[in-house]
Amino acid sequence: MTVRPASGTDIDAVAELWVQLAAEQRAHGSHLLAAENHAQARDLIGQYVHADGVAVTTQAGRTVGFVMFHTETGFYETDRTRGVIDNLYVAPGFRGDGRGSALLTHAERELRSRGADALAIEALADNAAARRLYERRGYAPHRVTFEQSVENDTHSKDDP
Fold this sequence. Notes:
InterPro entries: Acyl_CoA_acyltransferase, Bact_Acetyltransf, GNAT_dom. The chain is an alpha+beta fold and 160 residues long.
C-alpha cells in the first residue's frame, strides 16, 4: 500500500470518493447532500490538489482512499499555526488494513512540514469508528458544536 500526493489526473476519482463519503456521513447526521454537491466538491478538490493538499492511496491502479488538508489562515491572529485535516476517507472493502492511518500520517507529516504546531480533524458525533481512530492517534475533543432542529416553511421540527 502506498500513499502519494494527488495530481490533476486524480481529481475525478477523488470527487467520486468524496460523494461516497458524503453519502455515508448522512447515516451519522450530516446534512450535506452527496450527489447534489459533486461539481462543487470536484472544484474544491482541484484547488486542494493545486495547493498540494490531497493525498491518495490506490489498489491495482484504482484510487480507494484520500485525505484533504490545509494550514489554517484567517482573519485573526492566533498563538498557534493550525493544520486542518478536512476529509479522510477509505472506500468500503479497503478499510481495516491501515490505509486510513497511512493517509492520516501523510497529512500530519505534510502539515508539520508547513509549520503547523497544532492539528485538527472533525468527526460527526455519531461516527464512533472515526472518533476511535482519531483518539487512538492522540486527538482529543477541542470544540463541540450543538445543533437544534427548528420548524420552518421547509422542515418540521422532527426532521433529521
